[in-house]
Each structure stands twice: as structure tokens, then as C-alpha cells.
User: What shape does this take?
Amino acid sequence: MEGVDSTSDLTMVEAINETLHAEMARDDRVVLLGEDVARNGGVFRATEGLLEKFGEQRVVDTPISEAAIVGSAVGLAIAGLVPVAEIQFLGFAYQAMHQLAGQVARLRYRTRGRFEPAITIRAPFGGGVRTPELHSDSLEAQLANIPGLKVVLPATPADAKGLLATSIREPDPVLFLEPLRGYRGIRGPVPNGEHLVPLGTARTARSGDDLVIISWSYQVELATRVADSLASEGLSIAVLDLRTLVPLDVEAITNAVVRCGRAVVVQEAAETGGFASEVIATINDECFWSLEAPVARVSGFDVPYPVGMVEHLHVPNEERILAAVRQTLDAG
Amino acid sequence: MARPSDDQLRSILEDMVTARVQARRLWNLQRQGQVGTVAPIDGHEAAIVGAVHALDPEHDWVVPQYREPLALRRYGPEILDRYLLYNLGHPAGGHIPDPIRVLPPQISLGTQIPHAVGIAWGMTLQDESGIVLVFFGDGSSSEGDFYEAGNLAGVLKAPVVLLCLNNQWAISTPVHLQTAAESFAAKAEAFGMPGILVDGNDAAAVYDAVEEAKARALANRGPTLIEASLYRLGPHTTADDPTRYVPADDLAAAQRDDPLERLRTELSNRGLWDDDTHAATEAAALARFDEAFEVAKTAPLEPDAVLNHCYSTDTQRLARQRTELLGRSPGGG
Assistant: This one.
């Protein structure tokens, strides 16, 4: 475990920036493309300093053109490069959805493996920062429903580094979704040097035996606060951070539910058809008879992602998570 | 500008004749229920074959829409073999073996244009000398991907040639309902690249236009949009009845300017082609086709082929689904 005690204290956006630097230095096939990623260093500074270090051939400001960003990334991958594309906000990915779903996701499948879509698409998403319309949409369930894509959502700076490095090195296409509220709102220790987190391995953010809150991305932070607050009442609440929705760590979900017997699933996306439903269906498949109470879910409402003055009513908060936890503990 | 040599013209006509008779054979197989929906090639042969003969298969990529494969013989016999698998619905139909620089057919119209720009861009980044030729139709030019990709190609000065096969019809929609622009070539103006309008029934003219665009791209002077104007002599596909919308007089006029007959006449008049050569070419093309079709029909298919190559390695869930498909109890228990 060499270097394991050597960490830096970083925000998520700093961890992402550091990882992009490291991966571009490590592999000269890595090419960055997107809107405002070069001269401006990204609207959140995630790509700051990369143009200066790696030059305008490898760090490229594109036209405002999401379909061409994703579509040309397919071509770059076919040509043998490793594109890391940025969609400035996940809501803008709607304008590239035909390339994502119809092309990126199927490239390997339809060419029987001749072409490897080693493509990483980074996009910030999620609520809590009062962005204008169409910036905060949580599209993870739509993306997870597209076979061929992998969907990765780090909740900590250390995972932002470890999962991003793995994603860039992955031969499969990855949608790497970064929580807007976490960019500067979450800070933590990040291992120095090489740090890889495999895709498909959930993280126990907090151990516990009475109930498990299953979540991903920024909601893991809120779930952990709720779990911490209940410790004084003698309640032992676990928090499972899925980290990646595809591939899904079915075993970790099953183990946590079997141990606790009670579960709450938290997501920012709208309730109907959200990934929480998939998690609950998985629990039904794998360990229904271990349950002592019905599994609850805490979601956004079934409305388009709302504007700033009302978004706090939509996005799950600690109060709503706490209510669902208490209800599930009291049931059965 | 180098016009095609006599040898090249003979070779172009050979590929055109081959494409036409093979496409007709494929049509018959569809009518017999042996293959799925197919798109005839009649009327497009000069533009596709002429363009491809201006390329160097070792260095230049071809990114087709869906009507072109039978006319890409220059890129190797595997193109026909794989296209037959494609029409049979075999999963390997989209696998054109390495290192052939051809992508499989693209059904989602226009989506291949940004791919072509990306390949061209990637070649530049790796100091590879070569270009990408991407095919699309008059209808596809109305898709957003055409504009996004054309714009990006212009900005990047990518070594790509955008070849619009304007066959006058997008299924039943005529050109005047597709665009109010003076021509499809005129759209190049907005991309900051040259737009060339060429007679798509003249294989040598298309060859010349592509050859010049290629030289331009290789000299780092950027992309070119070429519109090859031609006429779709057959239906859109085997599922289409053009008598519902194609004016009979227009079709008759177009048939009198059949690109294959035009080149055949020209080469015959110059003593470069004769009826015996023509008959022998057709016979060889059909023999090759029939042989390839027999092989395609018996191509091996793994019992779990439907699950293969979705990911580099199965996800946990896909592994379980594979086990289920193969009829074993999940988890071995």
C-alpha cells in the first residue's frame, strides 16, 4: 500500500483537473474537446491549464455543437485516439442524444468489436446551484437505459480522480457525470499519484446495520449527513454510494439490504422511470425475502427540472431523506 | 487535374456494371424472402464508383450512408461479403475487417458525417496522410448533423470530402421540398469551404471533382462539399412504390441518361469496351455474388451472438443474461 497515506486536500473540480492533467501526460492519444474547454479552461475551470500544457492540437475549443462534439469523438476513436469530450451542462446533451444513443453506444456492437469507442464524455449536472433552465437535468436513468454506455457518477474528490482515470482508460464509452454542487462544495483527501477505482464497485460511504440509504453523486453527501445525525439516537444507518449505475454493483446492493433489512433509495431525478426504480427492482430480484419493510424512494417530482426559486422544493433534501428513513424504520 | 486514365475508366465501368447486376440480384433475393429490405443502386453507380476510384484504399477512408456498398468493390471483396451478411441480418454484417478503411452502412441519416470529420481530424492529429470521403443524400442534408459536421470540418480544416448524392428524391419528397437553396453545393458557402456541383451521371467528372478535393485536403487547404446531381432510377427501397409520386416523363428522361449506358457507349466508341467484355463482366459479378451468398448463408452464428460486443467485457448483469440465454441456471445453482 505504498503512498496510501499520501493525500492532498482537494475539491472535486480540482481533483478532476488534476486527473485530466495526469491522463493527458500519461497517454498522448488523449484529446480534449468541448465548448470553452481550452482558452477559458472550462466554465467551471475543470480543464484549466491544459491548453497551456498540452497545446491546441490536444485541447480543442469546438463550435457550439453538441452533436458534432460527440459525433466527431466517434471518428476520433475510430482513428485511434482517446477523446475526452465535455458537454458543458448535461441538459445540453439532449442535442447530442442521437449520437450518444444511436452511435457511441452501438459502435462496438454493430462493428462486432472492430472499433473501440474509448470515449469519455464529461458533463456537470444536478441541482442546488440555481442554474438557468436545462442546465441541471439529471439524465442518468435515460443514459443507463442505453445499452453500450457506462454511467459513472462520483460523489467524492477521491472518486472523481479514481473513476475518471479509469473511465479515460476504459475501452467502453463512459458518461462521466459531475455534481455541480460538489465541484467546490465537496472537499476531501485525494490519493496522490496513480489512483484507479474500478467501474462497477459500489462504495460503503458509511457502515450501519439498521437501514441502508442507497444513492449516488451529490445525494450521497446528504444521505451521509442524515445518517450521521441519527447516530445520536442509537440508530446505525449505512450509506451505499453506487458510484456507477452501469455497470451496477448488484452484489453490494444485495449485501447491504440483506444485512440491514431496510432500504431507502435517493435520487435527484424525477420519480417515474428514475434509476431508483431499477435499484428497487434489483432488490426484489435478489433479496426480497430479506426485507423487513417496503423500500422507500426519495426523488425529484415528475416535472421538468424547475427554475431557481422553486428548485429547493424539487431536489431531495435532508428533511425529506430523514422522513423516508424514519418511515421505513417504523414500518413492518 | 488528372482525368482518369483509360485503364481507370475501364475499371470504373467494370465496378459500375458489377454493382448494378449484383444489386439486381439482391433485389430478387429480397423478393424471394431471402434477405431483408434493400436499397437499389440504379442511377448512382457513376457517382459512387467514380468518387471511390479517386481514392487510395490504403490511406483514404470511405464513410457510406447505406446505398453505396456494392459500388465499393475497389476496397476489397470483403465489402460484398459483409454486405450480404448485413442484408441477411447477421450480426457480423457491420464488421468490415481491419484494416479496410470503410465503415458499415449507416441508417441514421447524416450521423456519419460528424464521424467522418472526426476520423479526418484524428488522421491530422497523428500526421497520417489521407482523406475521408463521406457519402450522404439530398435528404440527409436537411439533418442537423450535416450542418454541425460541415461547420466543424470548415473550422478544423479537416481533410474530408463531403459528397452529396442528390438523386432528386428522399423516398417520395422531391428536392424542392427539401431545400430552398439554389443547390446543395451552395450550402458550402456557410461552412467556408468550396462547393462543387458536378454531373453525377458522369463518372469521370465525379472522379475529377473528388481527385481535386482530395489534393486540396492533402495540401492542408481543408474540406470540400461536392454535390453529384443524378437521378434515382429505381424505387427508394424494396418497400417503396415510386409510381405513386415519380412523374413517368421525368423517369423516362432520366433513363435516357443512364450513367452506366453513357460510360459504356463512350468506352465502346473509343474501342475500350465491347459487348463481350460487358457480358463477361456481368457473368463474373453474378458468379462472385452467388458464391458469396452461399458462404454468407452458412456463416457461423454463436448461440449467444446477440449479446456479444456490447461491452469490452460483460457487465455483471449481462453475464447473468448470457447465462440465462444459454439455458443454464443462473449462478450455476
